[in-house]
Amino acid sequence: MQHAVGSPLPPPHQPGGASQQQPGYLGTPSGPVPPTPRPPVPPVPLPPAPQHAPVPGHAPVPQGTDTTGHVPLPPGGPVPMPSAPPAPTVPDPAATTLAVLLIGPAGAGKTSVAKFWADHRRVPTAHVSLDDVREWVRSGFADPQSGWNDHSEAQYRLARRTCGFAARNFLANGISCILDDAIFPDRPAVGLGGWKRHVGPGLLPVVLLPGLEVVLERNAERSGNRRLSDEEVARIHGRMAGWYGSGLPIIDNSQLDVPTTARVLDDVLARAIASPPKW
User: At the top level of CATH, which class does the domain 93-274 belong to?
Assistant: First the structure.
């Protein structure tokens, strides 16, 4: 008996009939063979990503740390007072990480001495020049030669604060710093007090104060806005004389060249490390 394609399968014959459904019978030869359903295959979990072993010689960088390349940078903080080595050892300032503030009038040779001193030390040393940082201001630069006002005062304050931040970052990474500034003993809030707040109590101030004739001669060799009038140089030099009796070390470099002054500075700093000045 033929059945139409797609029609339901006939019921199996009852016992005793002419034929009986054989095991495995799925339908007539002319009908479609339905696919055999397969049980779902559970997903196979992926193995965890392999952890890379640290590269020899490179310490792991903690999360949230300011870095340059692979070198972690510690945060800058106030510089502590340098600890003097036990007696009778004489401290060697040329091999010690220091923060130095070189004070003096225009024409005292602060920049020349600071650069030479930083160039010839046995440990990494940076020279942070206040005048250079102050002249980062281009448009709107307030030149005190045109008259001291609120703008020039604010720009000097910003430059000192920026120099202090730079010095703290260098020192936090083991690099010594020498800063130079013409600060007055009669203005402690923006002078030594300001530098102490910006850098820390470990800052070692040294005054560079040659005679007035020498300062006038050196100032005459300058150009641009760094050259002052003779009257202004004399006024600044007179105010700088107030450092005598302050307890700070003073170097009169009137008859000294730059290399000799740098060697004298090392001697002064060795004594300052052994017995820090009170300021």
Answer: alpha beta
Six-digit token pair at 52?
A: 């890379």
Identify the helix (H) or strand (E) that includes residue 100: strand 99-103
pTM, entire model: 0.66
For the chain, how are helix, strand and coil distributed in percent, rounded to 5? 35, 10, 55
Domain ranges of the chain: 93-274
**Residue 18 DSSP class:** S
Q: Provide the residue-wise pLDDT of the chain in tens; the chain has 279 residues.
A: 444 445 455 555 555 544 444 444 444 445 555 566 666 656 656 555 555 555 444 445 455 545 445 556 666 666 666 665 555 455 677 778 899 999 999 899 999 999 999 999 999 999 999 989 998 998 988 887 777 788 888 898 899 999 999 999 999 999 999 999 989 888 766 678 889 888 988 899 999 999 999 999 988 888 777 788 888 889 989 999 999 988 899 999 999 999 999 999 999 999 988 887 776
| CA-wise closest residue to 157 among 195, 196, 107 | 195
User: β-pairing, 250-251 with 204-208?
Assistant: parallel
Helices 258-274 and 110-119 sit at what angle, rounded to 10 degrees? 80
Given a contact cutoff of 8 angstroms between Cβ atoms, the answer to whether 128 and 76 are in contact is no
What is residue 94's DSSP assignment?
Answer: G
Report the alpha-carbon distance of residue 142 to residue 257 in Å, rounded.
Answer: 33
β-partners of residue 204 are: 100
> Hey, what are 276's tokens?
């820090």
Helix H, strand E, coil C: the string for 160-222 is: HHHHHHHHHHHHHCCCEEEEEECCCCCCCCCCHHHHHHHHCCCCEEEEECCCHHHHHHHHHCC
